[in-house]
C-alpha cells in the first residue's frame, strides 16, 4: 500500500526534469530559422541569387569577354559559379553572422541547450541549400539560353565546389567572429568586388597587367575559379597548382577562424 | 484514515528527496575575476537555496553581471569556484543548459524575426517546451503580431526575452536586470510572473539596481559593490537593522555632524552628501529626536528645506554601507 502511494505521490511531486531536444531536432529548428532569416533579408537574395544571374546574362550576352579558346559561356559559367559561392559563404554568411554577434544573438544562443556544433551545422546546411539553388539557377540559364553543355569532370567540379565553400564560408566566419559588424560588412563587400575583378572568373587573368596577374594567381578567388574552370572544360589538364593553392588557403583560413572566433 | 496514510507516505517521499532538495541551487565560493589586471569580483561567496528568489543588488560595475555570467557558463573564475544545481557551469554545460533559463542584459533577439518565430525556435531546443502562444500572452505580447523584433519597444523586447528564458521550463532562472526599460505597468506584470514562478518552486537569481524590485521580490538580498559582498539578508532584516528609523533632512552644507550625533537619542549622524544629512535613532526616540533636531536648528538660525522620516529603505542602507548613492 505504502509503496503504491509513494509512487503516486512522487510522480506528482517531481515533474520530469527539463530536457534538451534531440540534437537533430535542435539543428532542424535552427535550420528553419536560418532559412527564414535568409529569405527575409532582401540584400541576401540580391547578392547571392540576383547579382550572379545579372553577371552571367550580362557578360554572356555582350560577348565582350576576351576568350582565347572555346565559347564564352564555357569560360564564364565556372567563374560566375565561383563568384556565387563566394557571395553565399563570404558575403552572406559572414555579414549575417557578424550582425548576429553584434546583436548578442550568438551570446544568447550560448545559454540554450543548442550546442555550438548544432548552430554551425544548421548554418552550413542552410548555405549548402542556397548554393544548390544558385547552381541550379545559373546552370539552368546557361543550358537553356546559352547552349552550354556539361563537359569535363563532374566529380572534380563537386570537389572544387566543396573546397571553395569551406574556404569562403570560413573566411566569412573568420571576419564575423573577430571584426566589428560594420567592418565585416565593408571588408566582405570589398573583397567580393576585388575577387570579381581579379579572380579570373570574368576577365581572364592573362589580360591583366603581368604583376597583378602574378599576384592574383595566389589569391583564393583565382585558385578556386581556375580549379572550377579546369573541372568544367573538356580535356583540360588537372589543375594541380590551383587546387593546391586553394587547399592551403582553406587550411589557413579555417585555422584563423577557429582561433579568433569570439561569440560575444 | 486513508488520506492520513497517504499524507504520511508523501512526507516520506519528501524526506527521501531531501538530500537533493536540501542542496543549494547555487554555491559561489571565494569567486574572483579580473579583467586586464583590474579585479571586478573579489572573493565573493554566497549560496542560493532551492526555490528561493535571490537578488544581487549593486550599482553598475559592482560585478553583478560578471557573477551571473560566470554562473551561466560564459566566464571562467580566476579564483574560487561556482556550482550551479550541483554542476560546473563550463564542464557540465551540456547537462546544465536544459535546466536553466536566462535573461541577459542584452536581449539577443534576432532583429528580423517576429516574436512568435523567435520563441518557436527556442522551443525547438527543448524536449517539452511550454506552449508558445500561451507563453506570449502571459508576458503580454500578441502571438499574432507581424512586427519584427527590431521594431519592438525596449519593454516589449525585454518581455520577449523573459518568455525565451521560460520556454524550456527551467528549474533555475537567471534574470539580469529583468525590468530595465519597462514601463511601470509592464514592470508590475513581470513582478507578478516572477512571484508565480516562485510559487511553482522555480529558483530565481535576479540582479537589479532597483531597490524596490529587490525589496518586493527577493527572499534574500545580497548587496555587492566593487565586487565584494557588503550585506546579505532578508529585505526586512536588512532594512530593519537600524530599527527602521531614519531621519533625512536637507539644510546648508557643513553642519556639525558630531553635534548632531550628540543630540539625545541620536545613534548616528552623517552628512551623506554636502547639505544632505542622515540621522539614525531608535523608534521610541523618534518624536523627541525630531523636536530636538528642529530646536537645535532654530538655535543656530538654520532653516530646513526638506525633512523625511521613515523606515530605512534598502536605498538608504546601500548609501550607508557603501558611502555612495546608487548609480543608475
Automatic annotation (TrEMBL), chain A:
Transmembrane feature ranges: 45-69, 75-99, 120-148, 154-174, 186-205, 238-258
Main location class: membrane
InterPro entries noted in UniProt: ABC2_TM (IPR013525), ABC2_TM_bact-type (IPR047817), ABC_2_transport (IPR000412), Nod_factor_ABC_transporter (IPR051784)
Keywords: Cell membrane, Membrane, Transmembrane, Transmembrane helix, Transport
Bilayer topology term: Multi-pass membrane protein
Family: Belongs to the ABC-2 integral membrane protein family.
Identification of the protein by name: Transport permease protein
Organism for this UniProt entry: Thermogemmatispora aurantia
Automatic annotation (TrEMBL), chain B:
Subcellular localization(s) per the UniProt record: Cell membrane
Residues annotated as domain ABC transporter: 26-251
Swiss-Prot/TrEMBL keywords: ATP-binding, Cell membrane, Membrane, Nucleotide-binding, Translocase, Transport
Origin superkingdom: Bacteria
SMART domains from the UniProt entry: AAA
Protein name as it appears in the record: ABC transporter ATP-binding protein
Gene3D superfamilies assigned: P-loop containing nucleotide triphosphate hydrolases
CDD domains with a match to the protein in the record: ABC_DR_subfamily_A
Pfam families on file: ABC_tran
Organism name: Thermogemmatispora aurantia
Major localisation: membrane
Recorded GO CC terms: plasma membrane
Molecular function GO labels: ATP binding; ATP hydrolysis activity
UniProt xrefs under InterPro entries: AAA+_ATPase, ABC_transporter-like_ATP-bd, ABC_transporter-like_CS, ABC_transporter_ATP-binding, P-loop_NTPase
